[in-house]
Amino acid sequence: MTDRLPGRWLRLALSAVLIFMGAAAHAAGPLVDTPWLRQALASSTPPLLLDASPARQHAAGHIAGAINADFYSHGSREVDAATMQARLRAWGIADNASGQTLVIHDQGGTMLATWLFYELYRHGVALERLRLLDGGLAAWKAAGGAVVSEATPQPPPGNIRVSAAREDARVRLPEFLVASGDPAGHALLEALDPPYYFGGAKFFNRGGHVPHAKLTPADDYFRPDKTFKSRAELQAMLDHLGVRREQQVYSYCGGGVAASVPYFALKFLLGYPRVALYQGSQKEWLEDARELPLWSYAKPALLRNADWLNGFSNTMLRTFSHSPISIIDIRPDQDYAKGHVPFALSLPAERFQAGLASPEQLAALLGPAGVDPQHEAVIVSQGGLNKQSALVFALLEQLGQRKVSFLLESAEEWELRGLQLSREPTRVGVRKPPLDPTIAPVDYQARPRAVLTNSAALAATPPAHGMPRVYLALGSRPPAAELPGKIVHLPYAQLLDASGRPKPAHEIWSLLAKAGLPRHAQIVCVAEDIGEAAIGYTLLRLMGFADIRLAVS
Questions:
Q1: Bridge partner residues of 250 (DSSP)
Q2: pLDDT for 22
Q3: Where are the CATH 3.40.250.10 domain residues in the chain?
Q4: Closest Cα partner for 108 from 53, 50, 39, 66?
């Protein structure tokens, strides 16, 4: 009996190893590498290998035995269950009870393999059967894998049954439209490249992005060798962008294909619990009879025009307390006295300078002047975006003002548009109900944000989420002093038009990209004149950069 113990213990140990290996494979998720595929193809039950590459690329060279599942040739138009079932059976896909494993790949680093993965999953193929080859054919060849050009024989027809598709894998327009209006509870991820997001390129009749969408191009999810970035890298990128696990996440693109890359990464690699793909994407959005909007700037509401301000800040609304807007006129006192936007509060720009050293002093100034921290604060200056208005913008954001924006027109332009200017100072004091537009002073409670910073604070605090720190120099000349990190020099004047207003979003993006400014980094705006640095800070906020600082020393 004792002679049989070693064999018994060996069998138990081997079983434990196999169980561990199976658990590890399951924990690794659907992404597999080339050594795994090589071993699987050599096993007694090899997987069905599906090449999602276009037919021409597949014919030029593919892994032996790969079936060309050129899903792209069928287009992204949705088909009925019978058509999809016939398509999948023609590729040899068996039902879920068969134990058949499917390994999907493309040329590497594209959207085609993730799209095929999504469609198979959505049409009922069990997730535990699906694998995606990391790096695709490029990784296979880099590891010494052979390719052939001979056509793979047609496989025996499969017997998979396709009935109702998984509705939880996709989102439709009504829910997607609601999500666009709720950026706190939802995260919309656009998988198109920056020129499309910022409106410089377009697939359809208009360029730009769905309101409140975050820019996450499909390429951002891959390394240069066409493999997916590590889970830690992907998580850091999403944390940097503020995509939270408790949010409902929807991915989209132009026609629903590139959106499969963020969908795959978040749902199957990172395990985000609530992820769906908007198959209609921009095409359906723009076809809608309501003419749904697209934005080019990431935060266009930072820029206000005279018609908007006149409509939301008038005597009737003020009288009935329905105008949560604080208008801050930062021009000199004498200019304010000559004529100002109705209900504007006179707070010349130089009075904000104390906020550079002491936000508490600035808060003590704003409250008695009638600035409510829960309002949208609209800055009125000499027009456009200038050094004074940009610095006031940054200081108000540092204080924690709920929302800050700019009136693009000057007081003179306001009047030229036929709108009335007021010559009497705006009344601030005790209101006499029921019909009194007097602005009441408030207790301005500052809730400082991380906007202003100095070199000592930067040295003591590394950027969040492991991102690099990059210095954007906005002056006419590169900074004279050495800075502890990458420096990108781009004079602020290049980012404004002749009237001092921000250039179109796609032009600003082109200049930033040409200068070498990365999107995933902590950007510190610097200049000898802090107002010039503040213009850079403001423009990056307008463009949707996630982590920006303004250096005050």
A1: 188, 276
A2: 38
A3: 21-165, 170-296, 301-416, 452-551
A4: 53
